[in-house]
Design goal:
Helices cover 55% and strands 0% of the residues. It is built from four helices and no strands.
Length: 97
């Protein structure tokens, strides 16, 4: 079944194991549309996968910002005081770092 999760720059395979899939049998593709436990489990797994890739994107962004800071590639921009990674990322977009 296609994952239905867009993660640009990543190629991945996800496996979901659950004893209840035995009852679904060969109709696994239809289980995704099911409003019962199988459909809910598949939807929850997709949500977790999306959350994982959002987290990875934030980590990559922070790594890039740290590299730029180490290289001095952000001349004239100063880091806002008490800024965490999210505020620093916003600062890059708005020129306040």
């Amino acid at each position: 079944m296609p994952p239905g999760v867009h993660a640009p720059g990543y190629q991945f395979t996800a496996y979901l194991r659950w004893a209840g899939f035995r009852e679904v049998g060969h109709d696994i593709l239809l289980a995704e549309m099911d409003s019962g436990p199988a459909g809910e489990l598949i939807a929850a797994a997709k949500d977790r996968i999306r959350d994982y890739f959002k987290g990875r994107a934030a980590e990559r962004q922070q790594e890039q910002i740290s590299e730029w800071e180490a290289e001095g590639a952000l001349p004239g921009l100063r880091r806002p005081e008490h800024a965490g990674p999210d505020r620093r990322a916003a600062g890059v977009r708005h020129g306040t770092l």
